[in-house]
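dude i think i finally got it to work??
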Amino acid sequence: MSDPFVTIPKGNPFSARTIFYWRLAQTLVWLVGAGILLSLFLLPKMGLLLFWNILIPVAPALFVFAPGVWRNVCPLATTNLLPRHWGLSQRKKLTATQLGKLNLLSVLLLYAIVPLRHAVFNTDGIATGLLIVILTTVGITLGFFYEWKSAWCSGLCPVHPVEKLYGSNVAFTVPNAHCHKCMNCVVPCPDSTPNIHPSASVKTIYHKLSGWLIVGGLPGFIWGWFHVPDHAYVAGINAFPGVYQMPLMGMLLTLSIYAIFAELVVPGSEKKLSGLFAAAGVSCYYWYRLPALFGMGDFKEDGFLVDLSSYVPFWVIRTFTIVLALLFFYWLVIRSSNKQSWAVRPPYANKFLK
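look at this
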């Protein structure tokens, strides 16, 4: 029996055939992820190339245009949600304060882990593999206790703040290939709320702090991160602050700028301001990342995929990054909101839930 509070779009996105295709995609991507993880331990050089220089560079653009696709097929999410799919989860619901704390912790984890790429993870396949195993273990453990995506995918996952920042004006909506019934486990649901962004929910001080840190801090953090080379030769605990200095300085700078603008903008313009900083962040990422991928970065061996420096003039790559930046600013700042969510909300489990 259909739920009276839910209108299913024409061409039912939750049809058995559609979900089958998404299950197939989830399985294939999970197998690819498992293969990359295995290669990080057995063939570290190849694993590092596949993970850091092929998979990760694609992610920011995907988050801008179709975060729902990644949310559906993310291997870690698929693993984390197995207890719920198999009926093994206790299905607890988080309070707003608990979720706010997880959201804040996810931003702090992002800012804590990413600089360590220069010191450890970019050059050590086993360390990167162990990091993925630890994150997967935490995610699946939370899945045994909490409802659907609330604790990990929409809570503690350090990638989620970036998804929410970049995915505020998506190109299209996809079916939700995990949640077959909406349990209102997260309010507002990042998957089902049109034009979601980090400032969309300020229920607690933790939500507000996490929003400010990711919106205001990420552009400067990215800029600073690209000014630190790999192989930082961390000889002891006292040397670790060196990989954090530039990213944190950049973060504090743009966070200060954001704080000033946040006081000046008229009420209701928060989304535009968030979009402006999101566009600055993703544009900065590809400004540095694309040249590095093709052997034209500031640090020759860092983030290297294939050396095209002898075949393609640098101005070609730079022109492409400029065009890409203009696209991002148009998409996230100028383009009108299309009132679309990352995924179609499935029917509510209870018709009295709204």
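The chain has one domain: 16-344.
im so relieved honestly
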